[in-house]
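Schema walkthrough. Field components (list of strings):
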Amino acid sequence: MQVDLNNTFGAVMGWGAGVYWFFTGFKDLKARRTIENIPTSRIMTGAVGSDVEIQGHIIVEEDRLVTAPISRAPCAFYSIEIQELRRSKNSTYWATVDQYFSDEGFYVDDDSGANALVLVSGARITRQGSDNQYRASSNQFSALPGPLAESLRLNADKLRSFKPEKTSWLFSRDYRFLEWSFQPGENVYVLGFAESGIKGPPPKRKKLKASDYNKVREAVRSDPKMIARFDLDQDGKLDVDELDRGTRIVAEKLLQKYSKKKLETLIPKTRMIFKFRKGHQFHISNMKETDLTRKIGQMSMLKIWGGPALTIACTLFLLFQFEIL
Amino acid sequence: MSTATIIVLGVLLFGVLGIVGYFIMIYNGLISLKENIKKSWSNIDVILKQRYDELPKLISVCESFAQFEKSVIDRITKARENYGQARTVSEKSQASGQVSAALSGLFAIAENYPELKSNENFMQLQGRISHLEESLADRREFYNDSVNNYNIRIKQIPDVFVANMLRYEDEVMFQVSEQERQDVKIDIKLPKFE
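Field assembly_structure (string):
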């Protein structure tokens, strides 16, 4: 008996994938029915403390617009998915190694007089529209476009598996960065567990960019009042330690002012906060509800019928392979 | 074992699993639909209760104006009493309609009493009740959507089989009263063109 190990391994994987798809197909079908069963609420008057469905458009304060690192378009929120090119014996495929978002969430307004904050972590995001992408080998990481390199640096703490470190040509790997974003005014559909806005956590404070930090440093160095304030040894000038301390204090004050401003504007009008909660569905989409249910329904049918077909085919292959049949 | 037997066994296995899984999903789906209706009704009931509690304050403010039309106050008092006695969804929706109609009548007549209209307590109560009415309208719409989804589901195949097994029947929608549905009469005297 001659067993082809590669094909056998593939068949075993296929067998497992078929069973997995079969069960996740039912999960998708349940999601579709949940979306169909829950009517749309208005943010102002919807009942918090339960699963709520809203439809509205994305809002953002002008000074909170971020720049998408690949398309360089101003947006309210962006996602970067990092994929690595992997090779098997006969084929190559892109495997997702990491993903991060520009912020913890975004705001939705449905013209009811209130807004909702959507914290995206743990949500199932179904989008229409293509992604922007940028390809690079790990030996070219030092030459990444400025906005992308800056975005990776600012979000380094969110990256769990991927490290944007340049490698030598010999150990080089191919990567691609997929970007999608939500534009201000874009329609969005959200279904999830809604909590009261009053108890919600304040948005995460933005970090000061390196260029801004340098500007603060320069301002502290050149301003006589600042010099007088941070000149601890009273020698009329700031040494490195004094300058660092002064810069840190001023930068902290600026960040506090920035965060306070944000809290004062959008938070009082925020009536709902959507966040992932175990045992509850959490969907975000820029599609219409009917299109979303159709898409999820098609996926579920494909999995429910395709999964078993794949498993049966793989079972037959394995039985032939081991000459049981 | 032949190839055909393996295929048949595989199809049967997945078929049985699929049918059982589908049945469980429909069963759970119908239960959650039914519970959604109860929950959305409770959300309406909260607003109705809040409005019910605000009415005596409003009546008391109006009564402090000796010349205010007694028939209007009596109508609200009667509507409130009817709501207090209502038990079922249809009774409550009918009584709620009466309260809404009586309130809109009161607020319309209050326009003729500038002193009452400018009274701070009255203004506060009017604002609060208007907000509750707005919430009530939204939640009524939500409730009716939930009932509509449920009523459609229990008649669709294959849900109808499970619904029959559970003896589920149509739920009643929250009806808008005849008075609320009536068009507002606008009587504007336009100048004649020569």
